[in-house]
Amino acid sequence: MNFDPRYSNRSFTSVGTRPIRPDGVDKVTGRARYGADFNMAGQLVGRVLRSPHPHAKIRKIDTAKAEKLAGVKAVITAADLPDLTDGDAAMYDILDNCMARKKALYDGHAVAAVAAVDARTARQALKLIEVDYEVLLHVTDVDEAMKHTAPLLNDAIFTEGLEEKPVKPSNVTKRTQFGHGDIHEGFGQADFVVKRSFKTEQTHQGYIEPHACVASVSSDGTADLWVCTQGHFVYRQHCAQLLGMEASKLRVTSSEIGGGFGGKTHVWAEPVALALARKAGRPVKLVMTRDEVFRASGPTSATSIDVRIGARKDGTITAAEATLRYSCGPYAGMWAEIGAMTAFACYRLENVRTVGYEVLVNRPKTAAYRAPSAPMAAFAVESAIDELAKEIGMDPVEFRIRNAAQEGTRSSYGPVYGPIGIGPTLEAAKNHPHMKAPLGKNQGRGMACGFWFNFGGQTCTDLNIGMDGSVSLAVGTVDVGGSRASLSLVAAEELGIAYEQVKAVVADTSSLGYNDMTDGSRGTFSSSMATISAARNTIKILRERAAQMWDIPVDDVVWEKGHAIAKGEKYGNLAALSLKEIAAASGKTGGPIAGHSELVADGAGVSFATHICDIEVDPETGTTRVLRYTVVQDAGKAVHPTYVEGQYQGGAAQGIGWALNEEYIYGKDGRLQNPGFLDYRIPVCSDLPMIDTQILEIPNPNHPYGVRGVGETSIVPPLAAIANAVSNAAGVRMTHIPMSPPRILAAIEAERGG
Amino acid sequence: MAGVAVSTTINGDNVEYLCQPDETLLDVLRDRLGLTGAKEGCGTGDCGACSIILDDRLVCSCLVLGAEAEGRRVETIEGMAHGDRLHPLQQKFLEHAALQCGICTPGFLIAAKDLLAKNPDPTEEEIRFGLAGNLCRCTGYDKIVRAVQDAASVMKGA
Hints:
Chain A: GO terms for molecular function: iron ion binding; oxidoreductase activity. By secondary structure, chain A is an alpha+beta fold. Helix content of chain A is 29%, strand content 24%.
């Protein structure tokens, strides 16, 4: 049946309410099962041996002694994961990252793994594996890695996207460019120009649950994988391909997930666990330590960004330009490309150009981190925008309002916008009481805007009606923060029944068709679209069954408030049939009642936010305190407003950590010096104030309820908003994130000295 | 290595187990006793996800040896509700949506219970510092603090 995803204005009964989530009680009683909470009979403990060197050739690995240790059931190296990628370069990189093949490319790169009867034996076995390394020169800094003199990570990489094909290999895998107009002409029209360079350090998603999985492979080639992941269908595909299995023979069940934020979108240990289980002939549980999570999962990029923006005296931006260099770890990525696309997306620009460079460094492979690449670009651009407003003598909010993108604006990355929320979020921020609150000594206020694309993607959903009229909703998008509640609300809304009558579950890969990852803020957007479609398909069957029960034409039956109603005066004596009554009769009217939906959820509406924050800076020590924080963001339609607020607050808190504290610190030896929560300090409760939220609802025209993704945009503005606040408080422009006390103090002292 | 025989009380029940001398209480709870409500987020006492109460004292069970539980009283998240009746903190965490992924939730609930036992009427600042040993990466703590405030007022009235 054709499904029309277009928005239509309507009043809601369930959507927009705030019920308790269906997985809540299990999570407050300790009953919910996460990655490491699952066990199989006869299970072994897996452990991974990791390179202590940031860059080294692997000459030889001798596993003989480890294999002889009592209790060791399997030892594997890259030789046990043969290359089956058949020329697929991206898959080869995933394989090489799971287990180093010829070279170790970062401190923490896996080189071998063992499965043993217990953790102690496994640890002992790792010590008995002898790896003969030839240590190579390394590079961890993004700017250093771009130099011609830098050690090369991969001599088969020649920069793509240059006008002339380079003759020498490079650590720069790709150059990309976006924009329109003529920036030279635009800068010619400018009365004021701000030009600045910025740096941001590498940060980690910092999910509290380390990666964990349990793998079991039977001798008939079937296998099971229990794993914490943002996308079990994608994990199945990748694992099956890397291990030479048929996808349908590998059943992947997603556990409850203890945070992902983009970091659980890649396979790291799962193919290793499957290879160990296959070799040992027993299930293997593999859980990363926190040290391993920091050293060997996927943090975000470190960046170096140059920005130039010009404007006329009247406050109109005439030209904008940015050059963005993003670290990718040792494998090609598209991180700078995304940064280049998002950098100026908030503004209506006639002349704009952004250039991105993807840079290989001896650090772990970069993975997505909530609106990946956008926060760093926004930090640079929104800092320069603030500075430009100051030079012109305009209020920073007014300056942004004057130049904000609108419906019909051609975005800096190409597409023309539909109805968007940047203007409304700015107006709301301008009128927010926070903007007018007084500030004390050494306190500064900053604000900034942010943009994220949002994503839709492949989605498959089943809606089954029980004999008792209760509804089982099986979705394939992993629930990372309350989507089972929001999807139950949507099913209840569409069917016209109570929220409590619906039970949503995340189905395993053998129970449902393929679903893309829960990424790109797509969980509620795409699965609600599929749920609406499945519910409408169910309603069609419910109407048919009612028509059959009444023996009247189906066209005379309508569905209203959870009931089939015979339409027309001639049916005046027919009492409405409830969903429960139709379900109870289903055995006699054609069998089980179910609705399915398989679709590509196109048209994810772009998302905008404006943040305001107040920071106090101690000029003697450089320490900071966040005094007040406000998030204004467009949700399209907030399905469960409390969880929408939660997404806004959580993104802001991660952004605050990134802005002020968090960074990967590498020593001269190329080793990560702070792979733990003590030294990689994420915000704790006493670091933060309450985080105020304001939800705007500018309907997405491409979703029946107007829903937009909400999960990611909230991390885009904080770096810049806080940098602007700190700069205003300290009286000096901050250009290096995180703004840790030593950096702030150095900036203040340089300003005083200068 | 020979196991250590331990006799202890967990959530009011007498429990006996054998563990290795170097095995943490967290590993004993999770791997030997099937009490997986306490989580290992770091193994170094930095995240608080493994919080339990040991003889009225809030501790990270990853920093306690299994053998140290001998003759002591252990309270875990599994013992917080009375049958199917949730503790007010559990109920308020649900009502305020004070959890997103939920991995830190058992640790927060145990820490909050300990906090309210010692200070039934905490200020926001006292809550924030009282829970500063527990990391949450999803919520920004806002709704957690509100849930604890609300639970405190309910428990005072009870």
